[in-house]
Fold this protein.
Amino acid sequence: MDKEVAYGNTRLAFSVTRSNRKTLAIEVHPDLSIKIVAPDDTSLDDIRERVLKKGKWIAKQQAYFEQFLPRTPEREYVSGETHFYLGRKYLLRLHKSKKQEVKLKGGELIVFLVDTNNKQLVKRLLGDWYYDHAKRKFNQSIKESVRKFSKYNIERYPPLVVKRMTKRWGSCTPNGRIILNPEIIKTLSRCVDYVVIHELCHLIHPNHSKEFYELQTEIMPEWMKWKLRLEKTLI
Ligand SMILES: [Zn+2]
């Protein structure tokens, strides 16, 4: 159940989970979502009131997490510009050619096209290239990472969806689909593994509970290092 309240000139959207606990808890997650865990008998009006009362604190938490969200710097798609792929810098080079293609060669990311001034087309060709490479890399990472969960009975290879998202790197659906942001292909391979492992852990623990983090640490003890690295690269 998704609800919202007006707060200042913004709206705070939140989801409510009922539980048999005695007190109400408000959580702000790194994707900026607000989750309320409320006792069974708390009315929605009461919950709204509590969210409003905590509005300042919620806004502060969201502002903190917002600085870590993936953001793509403005690109002009001209020769000489720096673009990232698997944690390495590549110089973009536009090359006049009748055949449209993108190649990674000798430290350069080369886009071949007829009209090198057509920035929209350069952007689309590059976007497609990143998307294809992301899909391949993510599938490979899932295949390798899933092995580390052998004792947890992830029975099948979880289906992957590659999708551009403005506010998150990955997520997983209740039916076990893993959704990953193609942007993470720009970071190191281990950072990709970190996001994949994070989402695979969600197949066992849907929330960011203590058990969730214990499992994540068991599978990837140095996950914090790759998380920080990811945040640094993609900001
Ligand atoms: Zn998560």
About this structure: DSSP finds six helices and eleven strands in the chain.
